[in-house]
Specification:
- By secondary structure, the protein is mainly α.
- 76% of the residues lie in helices and 0% in strands.
- Keywords: Membrane, Transmembrane, Transmembrane helix.
- The chain crosses the membrane at residues 6-28.
């Protein structure tokens, strides 16, 4: 059940934040590997 007013708003924010952190970590690892290789 979708709740437009509060309730799961903080959960959605945390989920989005975790996803961003996950992608950032993966990208950072790939970048570090490239720099180390160079």
């Amino acid at each position: 059940m979708p709740q437009p007013t509060g309730g799961t708003s903080w959960l959605e924010g945390i989920s989005a934040f975790l996803v961003l952190v996950f992608f950032a970590a993966s990208w950072w690892r790939a970048r570090r590997r490239r720099n180390r290789r160079d």
